[in-house]
Amino acid sequence: MSYDVVVIGAGIVGAAVVHRLRQLWPEGRFLVIEKAQGPAAHQTGRNSGVIHSGIYYKPGSLKATLCAKGREQLYAFAAAENLPHERCGKLILATDPTELPRLEGLYRRGLENQIPGIQLLKPEDIPHYEPECRGVGAIYVPVTGIIDYRAVTQRLLERGGAQVVYGAEVTHLMRAPDGYRIHTSQSARFDTRYLIACAGLQADRIARLDGLRPPLRIVPFRGDYYELRPEARWKVRNLIYPLPHPTYPVLGVHLTRMTDGSVEAGPNAVFAWAREQYSRVGFSLRDTVEALTFSGTWRFFIRHWREGLAEYRRAFSKRLFWESLRRLVPSLTLEDLVPARSGIRALALTQDGQFWDDFYFVSQERSLHVLNAPSPAATAALALADAIVEKAFATWNLSISAPTVGP
Question: Are 382 and 209 in contact (CB under 8 A)?
Fold first, then answer.
């Protein structure tokens, strides 16, 4: 069978793209190809489950714009579909007087980004929101929330009505006069008029299969989580974050209440030796060679070696992890922390070792590749899908409202 559009990747971005395609092209024939055995297997299903406000992002950037729009679309979708979520709010905490200028700068950025209802708090105000939390100042962000992104992804795929093939790694992309012939590890072949790749951790590889030379290389960074034992969950009402690091691309280990009532702590961020293995000792020769033969990786290491070393020490020391969290909630004890899951983030690096801090697409005659979809991609997924499909249709000269269904 031939398809109108094949989407590579069944994470939340790919699922949202199919959902948007179905809205615009009711009679379209769509297929989703996913390497894993189910949806949301990697970044989507292994993040903190937070609906972000958009406070951190450069005003006017694509991340800031799509996060604000996508946040409200996501809340509306979750409510309409009766999916687990809550607009619970969060604190961003300064724990040392030297951090106060950065806290005030972040607050001003939040005002520039028009984040609804944000408040700059004095130390005595903090326990009103988080009784066990202590700091020299904080920002309260009421529009931040929590959600089950796996459930959202599954529902988007259902609403998209596409055929979904799991356990199928794309091995070859062959261009044809009327589209693409796609070969997978299942020895299956799929023909399509158009292709949209939302491949996450494999985004650069899929682009190279399509004959592109992407300017970004995906380098994996692992994040480890702990969770609070049930008897200690009362110490965290909602979400408690430190100030993000000024140059290292992390938000810092934080405390997050999940939709099931559990409380997670983390993640840290360390170089991973494999793109899709989640243990601390997981290793892939191919992934390691690709990362360490890329000059941008070494330039990034040299620029951030102090932060990287500190993150590695914390990754293998529960005590150091606890000490970071205790700065936010002093009553936490070492025994309160129980080892939990890990996730891997696709860090997109340039040749000169800079991380690309915004969404990045490459489109050509019959394909579009999402080469970088960093946080807040899950929050922004519905708005991001609007932008992806609009760009794809414009490139392919298809009507945004009524594309012509192929033979």
Answer: no
